[in-house]
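Known limitations

Structure tokens in this collection are predictions and should be treated as such. Users comparing against experimental data should check residue numbering before alignment. To illustrate the layout, the record for Response regulator transcription factor is reproduced below. The input appears on top and the generated tokens appear beneath it.
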Amino acid sequence: MSLRVLVCNDLPIVLDGLRSLIEAEPDMLVIGTTNSGMEAIMMARAQRPDVVVTGLDLQGINGTEMIRRLLREPGETPPRVVALAMNDDDETLVSLLHLGVNGVLVRGATGQELSAAVRSAAKGQTTLAPQIATRLVDWYRRDSRGRSEALRIPTEEITARERQVLTLLAHGHSTEEVAEQLSIGVTTVRTHLYRLRCKLDVRDRVQLVSLAYRAGLIQSA
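Generated tokens:
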């Protein structure tokens, strides 16, 4: 049985290239391609691919939001996802990993790396680009060194609303989505995040989410 793969990317030349690379593998079949986030969700519902290979810059809704909706679809088991992150900034990587993707490849990935990631994803395994794996090891080492300090953070000063905002952020929601989920304004969400960074003495959202997990403020999805 061939692995059924849905391919998503906003650039036609990249979309065609990905399709050619995957179809060159004897154990894989591309069941469809699209440049639209919403169409990707509809195609996944109708055709039930084993793996979705997607970029993050899609038309309509972006790739991160498409992945979030796809992996939370009710009913049957959702497909595995391999994400192609052209901008591998820390916030993007944290969001993808917390969403539960089974692979993250970055600019410069080879066709062999792509096919290996698809096969691993189909088995429920996770494949990360070497650069990302190295950064995760570095994060872990820094976190381990700072674990004792993390345990002394003033968790009693964190309000219930701030925990809600932090949890939604850690689970991949944007500022606008957090505001919609909690029925509050975007400015209010940003105020909560600013206060959290001040209370926990961190510079950005990536550090905020990392510290919150270590301190037990939030749990993995």
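For this record: The first strand starts at residue 3 and ends at 8. The mean pLDDT is 84. Please report discrepancies through the issue tracker.
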